Structure formats: C-alpha cells, structure tokens
Amino acid sequence: MAPAADREGYWGPTTSTLDWCEENYAVTWYIAEFWNTVSNLIMIIPPIFGAIQSVRDGLEKRYIASYLALTVVGMGSWCFHMTLKYEMQLLDELPMIYSCCIFVYCMFECFKMKNSVNYHLLFILVLFSLIVTTVYLKVKEPIFHQVMYGMLVFTLVLRSIYIVTWVYPWLRGLGYTSLGIFLMGFLLWNIDNIFCDSLRNFRKKVPPIIGVATQFHAWWHILTGLGSYLHILFSLYTRTLYLRYRPKVKFLFGIWPVILFEPLRKH
User: Fold this and answer.
1) Is 33 annotated as a binding-site member?
2) Domain count of the chain?
3) Could you state a single Gene Ontology molecular function term (predicted)?
4) What's the pTM value of the predicted model, to 2 decimals?
C-alpha cells in the first residue's frame, strides 16, 4: 500500500492546484482530507441558524446574505477537501472573495438610513469580484487568490479598527476578539504550510489523537469560521446600535455567541 500521503481514494487522482498537509485518505476511503473536511461544520451550521434568526427579526437582507455566504464558503470548502478536485477548489476559493465583499459592503454601510442601497459601492464590489474571478480562472495561481482575499480582509480590519476607536469604543472586546481569533487561524495556516514535512513526521510517531491536534489547516477552518461569524455579529451589533436598537450578545448553552435585540419603544 502506498504511504498515506500518496493514497488515492473514492474521488480519484487529485486535480486541484493545492494539496494541503493532511495525509490523503488516511481516515476513510471516501474523504480525501477528513479533518480538513469535517472542520468546516463550524462555517456551515451556525450561520444557517443566524440567517434564520435574521429573517425572523426582520433584519436587512445584506446580513442574511452575510450568514448564508459564510455557509456557502463552508460547503465549498467541505467539497474541496473531500475531493481535492479543481472544480471544488473554485467552489471553496471564489465564495471566499464574494463573502468578503458582502462583509465589506455591510461594514461601510453601517451608518446609513435603514434599507438604503449604495449602488456605487455595490458596483465596485461586483466589478472587483468579476475581475478576480476572471483573472483567477485564467492564471490558476493560488497566490493571486490569497493576495486578493488578504486585501479584502485588511479592508475589514481597518474599518473595524476605525469603528472601535472613533465610533463605538465599547465594542472593542467583540471586534478585537473576532480579529484575534482570525489571526490565530492565519498563524496556524502558515505553520501548516511551512512545517508540513515536520508535522507529518511528528504524526507518524505519536498516537492518533495527538496527531489530530496538529492538523493546523483544520484549526484554520475552525478559527477563521468562528472569527468570521463573530465579525458578522460585530457588524450587526454596530448596525443595530446605529438604528437605535438595543443589541446584546448572549451565549447559547453558555458557549455559542448570538446577538439578540429589540427596537426602542415609541412613546
């Protein structure tokens, strides 16, 4: 039998331009990268409930779109890591760009009238998405995608810092928690890429449960999924404060953060 890293499984040969550090088909014949796949659940399930709650609360459609976009990213990433097929890679990477564009739109429209539409910003973000998509399909260079994604995240970081510094300083806890968790995921993503050979050798020598803990790309999914979810909460909290609602962050079962609010009563 070939080494775990070189096995083929149910989905056949790898056609994606990226193959991450997790050993392929090491857990099951049906999933190429098992831990990198199942770790996407944090990006799939909670945002669905967030979208449902947003509909019930009558929130602006862009926040419903934010939750659903994060779910789409999680589903695309699930398909990519399960199959390591190029088409599924695109289903993962392109929605990352589109979801971040939605996040950017929400962050820059926090202080506008309710249900207003900024057609100029909308046009710029749609055009950016189309250009990135077209170029990426042509060049098939992952670094190009990573740089474009990084630009969008950097824009979100700057806008968030502006809000917690000059507008709503009491939101620093939520804003910086979101950012810190995301950056921790980014750190582990880099460690996974740079020290892959060492990590694989280490996993051969230790019990499986310890080896699982070193699947840092899976941790990247968990931490960036949570960080992105918290960012939506931060954006939504900022928006509902401006609209004179009374938002509060609560923890379901003492663990999972959600935002609850009610409009001010009219006298």
Assistant:
1) yes
2) 1
3) metal ion binding
4) 0.93
